[in-house]
Amino acid sequence: MTLQHTMKRFDEELSSLDSSLSEMGGLAEAQLSDALKALREGDTALAERVIRSDQRVDELEQRVQEQVVSMLALRQPMATDLRQIVTSIKLGVAIERIADYAKNISKRTLQLPTSPTPARAISGVDRLGRLVQRLVHDVLDALASGDTAKARSVWEHDVEVDDSYNGLVRELLTYMMEDARNIGGCTHLLFMAKNIERIGDHATNIAELLIYRHSGARLEETRPRAT
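Now predict its structure.
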């Protein structure tokens, strides 16, 4: 086997690895979008589809892990190639967790119809979800294009998610104190809000990994946090 053929095969394997991550990201982003739509519209059938679709993301994460192990064992990559391969495992885990949290949101949506829930409370969770949805979209775009500036922008906007989440928690607690009948529904919404906030954290984790992947340098600053 010639060196040229070996390098071509290695490039194909790297491209296949990135394709697996891109497919994972597209599915996870769609799951989040559908989970929020199901919450807004009370669409239990859509919520159930989100839950079922999570299996495909899990399968792709397993594929990424297998690809990484094979390439490390057979290719002995160095420098940039090694960073690309090793960070792929962590990127796969982060994307899989985004999909898991979207699934959890849908599971809670299925329980909401049994409990009185203020429409304003659902709208508040949806607003937080749309904010995080935008960050997920941007960081997955950065993954596809190698845009470290866009990745850093996502990282810097994590504080907005924290601020919105903290305000939403206070709002939901107020609804619960105003009327005890809201406790059941708002409790589910609190869990949903936490899931969304965690999705935001994983989006910023992906941003950090992308910056390291392309530059070889880790961010030295402390991630901006809400006070």
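The domain at 3-215 is CATH 1.20.58.220 (Methane Monooxygenase Hydroxylase; Chain G, domain 1).
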